[in-house]
Amino acid sequence: MTDDPDLEGQDQPVFERGTDGPKVIVAGIDGSESSWRAAAYAAGLARRQRSLLALVYVQPLSLAGTAGLSVPMAEATSQIAEEIVDQIRLSTERLGDDFVLRWEFHTFPGDPFSGLARAADDLRADAVVVGASEQAGHRIVGSLAVRLVKAARWPVTVVP
């Protein structure tokens, strides 16, 4: 029932307390300056929205047919992931208790697009944040950000 006679009998949208806004924000991070800026932006969004920040590093798969390179490449990408986690922990410690942020770190194998798409789907992301491409080759193949936007499954924010 409503006090407005013009709205009587019409379905009214229902506001559910505590359910609006993003619950999970995924940020792609690979150690580049652009990805760190994207992670910082996503952290601010997650803090203000009281969302979970899922920081995702996609570990590139070794090239098939390249004998002997798969083990060293796996070790290198694992080391990169560990360095990223150490940097995230150091950054959150520097922020202190005034900056409350819930975050998780995930790694997914694959190319950046497939890995981030899988992460966003698996984590049920409400938003994806990535850094702008720093490579010239993206103009030929297409940047990660453009591919995520074209997938049209989540809102995508590209941080310069």
Summed up:
This protein is of the alpha/beta class and 160 residues long. It has helices spanning 33-49, 70-95, 112-122, 138-141, 144-151, and strands at 24-28, 52-59, 102-109, 127-131, 156-159. The model is unreliable at 63-67 (pLDDT under 50).
Describe this structure in words.
It holds the Pfam family Usp. This is Universal stress protein. Belongs to the universal stress protein A family. This protein is α/β, with parallel strands linked by helices. It has a single domain, classed as HUPs (Rossmann fold). 41% of the residues lie in helices and 19% in strands. The protein is built from 5 helices and 5 strands. Strands 3-2-1-4-5 form a 5-stranded parallel sheet, sandwiched between helices. The longest helix has 26 residues. The radius of gyration is 20 Å and the shape is globular. The protein starts with 23 loop residues before the first strand and ends with a strand.
